[in-house]
Amino acid sequence: MAGVTLNVAIGLLTSMVSGGFVWLWQRGRNTRALHRKARFFGMRPGESCIVVMNHKWDRPGVAAHHDVQAMVEAAVLARELGCEVSMRVSGDFRDSNGPSVEFCIGGPENGSNVRTAGHLEHNLPGIEVRPFSDRPDSMAFVVGEETFPWDRGRREHVLVAKFRPVSATRPVFVVCGQSAVTNHAAMVFLRRSHRELSARLASTERFCLILRVDAIATYGVQGTTLARDVSAAAFEPRPGLRTAVTG
Hints:
Layout: H1 2-41, E1 48-53, H2 65-80, E2 84-89, E3 101-105, H3 114-123, E4 127-129, E5 141-143, E6 146-148, E7 155-163, E8 172-177, H4 180-200, E9 207-214, H5 216-219, E10 224-229, H6 231-234
Parallel strand pairs: 1-2, 1-3, 3-8
Antiparallel strand pairs: 4-5, 5-6, 7-8, 7-9, 9-10
Helix pairs in contact: 2-4
C-alpha cells in the first residue's frame, strides 16, 4: 500500500514539475516573440505610438471603412506591445514624431494624407506615385525601372516603408496604398508576417517594400504577398525619366 501511495505521489510531483516547465517554456517563448516584434516595430513598453489618420480624397473629415480598420490594426499592435496610442489628423500634424513610433496611413492623392506626401518627398525620393486619372498608369508606383500598376479589385499594390527622420528617435512607418483596402491589407500583413520579414530583409532599421494584394473580391485583405524589396532605389533620388516595366 505504501508503495502505491509513493508511486502516486511521485506521479503527481512529476506532473507538477513537467507542467511548471511547460508553463515557463511557453511564457519564455511568448516573451521572446514579443521582444522580436517590439524590435521590428521599434516600440518599447510605456512609450507612445502615433497613428496619423487620412480621409477620403473627396470627403475631408471622413475616413473609408478599410482605412479605419488599418488604423485599428496599428492601435492594437501598439497596445500589444505596451504602448499608449494617440490619433492625429494628417493635415493638423506638423511636427516630428520624436520619441514615438508613427504609423502614417494612406496615400497623398488629392490631399488624402498630406503627411504621407511630405514623408515621400523628404525621405523616399526614389518613389513616384502617379496621380489618379483615366490613363493606364493611374495610381501606379514607379520605383527605379519598375512600375507597379493599379488593377482595381484584382491586383493592387501598397508601399510600406520604415525609416527614422533625422529629428526623431523612433521610426516612421508609411503605409501608402492604391486604395483603402490595400492600406488595411498592409497592416494585417505587417502584424502577421513581421517575423518572416525580419529573417528576409537585409535590414529592419530602414526598408521600403511593395506588397501585392491579389483577388480582393475573393480573399479581401488576406491575399497579400511581398512583391518587391525596393529599398535600394527608394531612398535615392530618381535620376531622370524611367522606363516602366509592369510587375
